Amino acid sequence: MSEVLKPQFTGARVTRLEDARLLRGQARYVDDFEYPGTLEVAFLRSNRAAARIQSVDVTEALAVPGVKAVWTFADCPITLPDRPFQVGQPVLARDEVRFVGEPVAAVIADSRYRAEDAVEKIRVQYEPLPAVVDSRAALADQPRRVHEHRPNRFLHKTHVTDGFNEAFQSAPHHLELTFRWNRQTGVTMETRGCLALPDPVSGRLTVYAGHQSPHGLRGMLARLLKLPEHQVRVVVPEVGGGFGIKAMFYPEYVVVAEAARRLGRPVKWIGDRMESLLADAHARDAIHEVAVAYDDEGRILAVRDHVIGDTGAYAFPGFPGAVGEANWATEMLTGPYKIPHVSIEIECVFSNKAPLGPYRGVGGPIGAQVQEAIVDAVARALGKDPVEVRRANLIGPEDFPYHTPTGKVYDPGSYGESLERALALVDYERFRKDQEQWRAQGRYVGLGLCVFVEPSAMAESEAGSIPYEAVTLRMEPSGVVTAAVGTGPTGQGHETTFAQLIADQLGIDVKDVVVLHGDTDSAPFGGGTGGSRSGTIGGGAAIRAGQALRRKLTQLAAHLLEAAEEDIRLEAGKAFVAGVPARSITIRDLARTAYTDVARLPEGMQPGLEVVARYQPPGAATYSNGTHLAVVEVDVETGFVKVLDYVVVNDCGVLVNPMIVEGQIHGGVAQGIGSALLEELRYDENGQLTTTSLMDYLLPTAEDVPRMRVEHIQTPSASEGGIKGMGEGSLIAAPGAIAAAVSDALAPFGVFVTELPIRPQQIVAWVQAAKTEAQAG
Amino acid sequence: MIPSAFAYERVQTVEQAVRALQANPGAKLLAGGHSLIPLMKMRLATPTRLVDISGIRELRGVWKKDDRLVIGALTTHREIATDRVVRTHLPALAEAASRVGDLQVRNRGTIGGNLAHADPSSDLPAVALAFDAVFDVLGPEGMQTVPIDGYFLGPLVTALPENSVITAVSLKLPPSGTRSTYVKYPHPASGYAVVGVAAAARVEPDGVIDFVRVAVTGAGDVPYRAQAVEDALLGQHVSDDLIREAAAHAADDGSISGDLFASEAYRRHLCSVYVERALRKVLSRG
Ligand SMILES: Cc1cc2nc3c(=O)[nH]c(=O)nc-3n(C[C@H](O)[C@H](O)[C@H](O)COP(=O)(O)OP(=O)(O)OC[C@H]3O[C@@H](n4cnc5c(N)ncnc54)[C@H](O)[C@@H]3O)c2cc1C
Questions:
Q1: Domain that holds residue B48
Q2: Three-state SS for B198?
Q3: How far is A539 from chain B (nearest CA, A)?
Q4: How many structural domains compose chain B?
Q5: Which of A201, A625, B55, B83 sits between 20 and 30 A of A677, alpha carbons compared?
Q6: Contact assignment for B1 to A274 by CB distance below 8 Å
Q7: Would you place residue A120 in the very low, low, confident or very high pLDDT band (cuts 50, 70, 90)?
């Protein structure tokens, strides 16, 4: 079957099928599910970063009316898996607390109000311990070990290319920079939560949760509750944002599920905002000490990077955040540039902070900012235009497949082209002239670039190590198709994009494809959504499943129309003979026949129209790319940064739905603005988290996010459909672009940004210091 | 983020409100709820009873009385921001009210609640200080007036007598020909003033400043009149240098403090920047 498909929906701006219910407020999130007799949980969380628990007195709490149970570790002695670091987190603190926000006790009551009243009545005696909060000190086990039985440094690895030392030492120029990214987190509009429903008859447990990996969640729950997997059903309803945070497995889920089982009642917990800032997976929090060797033309010859990553008190099962961050940042350290040599050293430590997990882009944003800052620093040192230095270093079309010094193999992309198009969109030469004039008027406007490479659809990611996805397709007798998928969308529009791909295979309307996801009873086993894998791997499976069903429909049509299979076309709801459109049968008739008029089926054909397909892409990853260009103005009196203009030229291979791709970009850029200018989880020297509300953890608002201009280039991948993943690239690129723009704006003051987020008061301090220095000199 | 249990009662008159406060130690008035309810949700405030005064009609509205503008305590920020009388006679108040939080906050929050709550980052206190506000207050002892001078005692602490209700706030209208403004650096999340400056000034035809008021909010524990700035300006000829030099004293009268978003040094700096910006607006000619 080599017939060329005429895609009608793939690549079109199909309005999201999800939007009607979302925009009308009719979508149902975990908290919208109400079952009679539901009990609610409130957690008592540690208010200490590090302390030994001497006693927990729950007597008064138990006396609060409506309270059914108050649990400590003794009542729910379950510990999350601890491999490979031997530091599993007890679901309720056991003997010791290790971060502010760690669950210590759980109150299960007939309402959340009552549960919170009771939480206030639990008395805990703590014996305080010195908190480990500084990652450099932590390396030397100072002031102490977070886990007595093992050193704080739990990971140390190096990667040095052959010939690095020689290349580095023989280079004519060197520079050194130390980068610091403070802690951040992916703030989801819907907080985490879950609802567990026991079925006393079957013994089955149904768990509703906002999660990115329905099957992953089921597996972990079954394992920890010691239930056979089929006795646990996970249902992921609408999810209000995931960003990696909701790919993790958290202690609260175990407590809620166990409570439902033991009390025989539905039990619900919905985190509040304070809980989510305290105990959702945190991210970033790394130091990169970088040394660069380069030549007179600005060609970068070798880069050394020493990373210190702080993973917090525990490692999430399957995803110790600091390792993910450091690995991604360093593996992608050379980005789109032909830098032949690297020397990488990674050290990751435990600390008395909340556990680090994945947040959109994982180490990508740090890696991209480092990579771009290196180029900008070289340009500044040589007095060259940063664009020139980029052109001198970029991987060209002739270099693909490109082998990076960190062992990655890039499939073809459009690195140089995306840069040139972005520059053209803002008229770069003209901008540089205007910039001079503005500076003369005391206006500090800067332009920053980030030419990014985004690894996607990797065999392993925070969504686990399932390298494939599955789609089951069933065409009903009505001709409508039901597709069940194992991915876990949290707003990405899978119901639309997968429907587009399937509809094109079957020649039916996109609205006649209903995509089901999130229920382990109906969805085929899958890895879920994370690591920008759903479009490529899930989309590939959708295409494969569509192809399989198309073959069967074609066979049946050929038989009924008495034509050769090669001559059958499926289009616009009909099967017809090529060149003879009048010889046709509707797909609906085909479907009806397949189920209810089986005497007319060709010999040997099974009744019904149902297939399952699994897809695993050929490569270890496919690499999207693009260029972000930010123009910012800095008010040097107040330190306020305003983004004036923002341009994205994006290449994620074949576009399934440009509108959805652009939506992903808009959101990622918004988060990037937050990452670069606002968002910071701050711990004080005692390990207290001081940013526990959205009044202190600053998020960008609509006012802070400019209109963006987005253009596309399409360099297909070798995967099915030519699709590349693109869920993270915008957040990978945006912080670096903004940081570079601020550096550029403040170049007259000698400012070069190496720490994110950039706080207004820091800008004022820089400018004042430069002015004082100028006066003194 | 769920309040502890409390009783709720809705009153129809100010007298009823005072009686309800007297009868229930631990009771608090509820107006727009946009300062009190957030505190209750964090369990930072745990009143045993809320006395809802939001239905008392006569506490709403703006009117001119002699050389004062009288504003009912329940008048919302939005009503003030869009009121013709306010916009004509006290543009700085309209500007300040129009920049409180966001639209929802302005639709609910009241001037009485704002000034009673005395959040050190609130906008309205700067304007109240600049225009010699006086509170009309009904308490157990009957009606009395409370001047703004000495009213703000500390963060969330005022000289308002116990168990009393602000019924109105009146502001003294400046001499005719005065220009006034309110400028602020809004906190990126709440919109509250990281630093907010109310300024009013009149310049005689010969360029001499014969009336000036400058008040600063957001910068420290309590909002304050920037006396040193006023002293540097009054009776002087307007000039760029004069403005800059006067603004350098912006923090002199305050007890400036830092928080998570803005350090003390940064706030001092912002005081000068915003006083200078406000002064440029009210002193620029033409
Ligand atoms: C998201 C958000 C952003 C905000 N941003 C700003 C901002 O930028 N600038 C700003 O200035 N404010 C801001 N506010 C606060 C807002 O202006 C409040 O509405 C106002 O401060 C309080 O008014 P209220 O009517 O809501 O008072 P309530 O919350 O009802 O009451 C506040 C306090 O005043 C007492 N009280 C109320 N009325 C009276 C009265 N008549 N007599 C005596 N006591 C009384 C109450 O008992 C209570 O203690 C913001 C609030 C929110 C939620």
A1: 7-52
A2: strand
A3: 38
A4: 3
A5: A625
A6: yes
A7: very high
